[in-house]
Amino acid sequence: MTHKIGTLFLLLLLLSLCTAGELESKKDLTTLTNVKTENEYIKSSTNQFPENCSQREKCKTQPINTRNSHLRKCCPIGESLSIAHDDQNRAMCVSTSRNVNIKVINVTLYDNCIEDMESELSLPLEIGNPCNTSFLYNDEEDLFLVVQDGSLLVMDPYANDTYSVEKKYCIDVENSSGTTYAIVCITAVEDHINRSQIVIVAILMLISIPCLVLVSYVHFRIKELKSVHGMTLSIMSGCLATGYFLYSLVHIFKLDERGFGYAVQFFILSYYFWFFCLCCNTSFNVCAKCISLLGLILISTWLLEIVTFYSPGPQIYLILMDMVNGVQGVFVLLIFLIIRRRRRIIFRWWSDRGSLVLEKLELEAFN
After folding, report:
1. Of 62, 68, 264, 342, which has the fewest CB atoms closer than 10 Å, so is most exposed?
2. Is the pTM of this model over 0.85?
């Protein structure tokens, strides 16, 4: 009986403590909520940011509503887009019961700033897709609006102060999902620049491939370098070389990206995995300067790849970033084969590559 009373007392004590803790947590949560609300009110009341774009320079070219201003619809009335979600994103017009409701806004453009005049307009429709080569935007992943002169205002969802105004486009609703798509034309010059940028990066990757193959072969062939570290480095270089080779084939010869894309991702991720194994193998050595330098280069190129992915375009700094990503094989060669100790081992192996080494027992049998 005493044990039951003691157990019941402990349960009541624990329950009271839990209830008190829960109430205290709710109290703290309420306090935090009030503080957050007060901070938001203070922040919004201090006029820290201007209410409009008057402090920015107004763009010289402004959209003006005229008689020739039209909203460009891709498909005829009573039809909408049907997107084939493949590597080419082919679009065709099909009959639909969906109503197309596209708002037209009145804006004033400033330097990296857009001021909405808060008045909606109605523009007549112009039917047809004017594009031969195009980009495809949708309102679930991208941000675009039609302005008063019928142009398409495309804004970068990752940087609010970046936008572009497109004249050649068409806009419509996808039949199955109801998603609004905008088809923006690519001019011949832009297409040529993008194609040249891809080919340059692919050529740099082809330059990196012999460097990576040499690093892999040397560490696999020379006995003094054929250790756990050397074999890991050999496999790592082979994975990156294979990924670069497949990437170059796809973009130079315009092969099907679907099958090769998974293979490229696999080998690039394998490259990072074996680099992680290389770091684990040398973690006990604080003075592993080669691994630290390669890690710094990998982190830098990885960040550059993220920057170029979210900031597409022909800007020169983006092209330079892609070029740095393409020459990682040269960096691996310089780091792991040009250092003094390994260079001496490689030169000694090269000078002795045709000599015959006789063991002691073989020499006695020969005598």
Report:
1. 68
2. no
